[in-house]
Amino acid sequence: MFYDDIRLEKEWNFVNKLGTLTEHAMHVHDALEVSILLENDAKYRVIDRDYYGKPGDVFVFRPFEPHYNLAQTRDKPVKWIMLLFSPSIVRLIPEGSKLLQPFYTAAGRFSPLIPASSPYAELIHRAARLAVDEEERKLPGWQAKQYLAFIDILVSIYRHYLEQMDAASTPEQKPAEGMIRVIEFVLSHFAEDIDTEQLIHMANMRKTMFFKQFKELTSLSPNEFISRLRLQAALYYLDHTDKSITEIAFECGFRSLSYFNKQFKMFRGIAPREHRARLK
C-alpha cells in the first residue's frame, strides 16, 4: 500500500480515466473520491473486500481508505470518470457538512457501491458526463456549470445514503439521530476545541454506548476522527496557500506545533515542512 500524493489544482476535479488488468498495490489519499464507471467491468478492492462493478455503477471512497480498481478482463480496459475533491469545498454549500456524511461512514455501515439500478446512480452519471463535457468545451460559464453538477452528485450520494441508513433491517442497526448530529457537528467544527463530554451530551447516550456507536459508524474513535479531519484540512492549506506551518497548525485545530508535526509525520511519513518542500 502506498500514499498517493494527489495535488488538486482546484477544490474539485473531474478526470476521464482508463485502466487495464495490471496488478498493483492499494493506495490511500486525503482527497474524497467518487468513481463513475462508464465502460466494461471493473474489480474494486476496498480495504479487505472486493466489489465487482458494472457500467452504470458508482463507487464512493472514504479519505485515507485503502483501495484500488482494475479491469476484470485483459482485453477490455475499464473507463470511468474520477471525481476528486477536498472536503473544504462544502463550506460554500448550504448545510454542506451533511453532504460529507457518506464519505465518513464506515464501509461496514454504508456500502461504497451505488448500483446502476439505483436512480441516484443514473443522476450521478448524468451530472458527471455534463461536468466533463463542460470542461472539454470550456464555453462561457463552464466552471459554474461544473460546480452545479458537482453539487448534484453530492446531493444524490447523500440521498442514497439516507435511504440506505433508513433501510437498515433492525432499529438497532440504524445510527441514532443523536449520533448523526454529533458527526455533522464535528464535520462543521473540527478546527475548534471539541470536548468529548459535549459530544456525549449531544448524542444523549451513556459514555460506553457513545464510544461504541461512534466507532461502529466511522471506524474511528472521536479523537482519531477529529484528528483526521484536521490533517485533511492541513494538507489542503500546505498545498494551496502560503500560510506558515504554524498558522496552518493552529487554524486546523492543533493546539501545539510539535503535536501537529508528530501527527502529520505519523500519517504521511514525512514532516509538514518536507511535504511542502516537495511541491517546489
TrEMBL record:
It comes from the Bacteria. GO terms for molecular function: DNA-binding transcription factor activity; sequence-specific DNA binding. Keywords: DNA-binding, Transcription, Transcription regulation. InterPro entries: AraC-bd, Homeodomain-like_sf, HTH-like, HTH_AraC, HTH_AraC-typ_CS, RmlC-like_jellyroll, Tscrpt_reg_AraC-type_HTH. The keyword Transcription applies. Residues 180-278 form the HTH araC/xylS-type domain. PANTHER family: ARAC-FAMILY TRANSCRIPTIONAL REGULATOR, HTH-TYPE TRANSCRIPTIONAL REGULATOR EXSA. This is AraC family transcriptional regulator. It comes from Paenibacillus ginsengarvi.
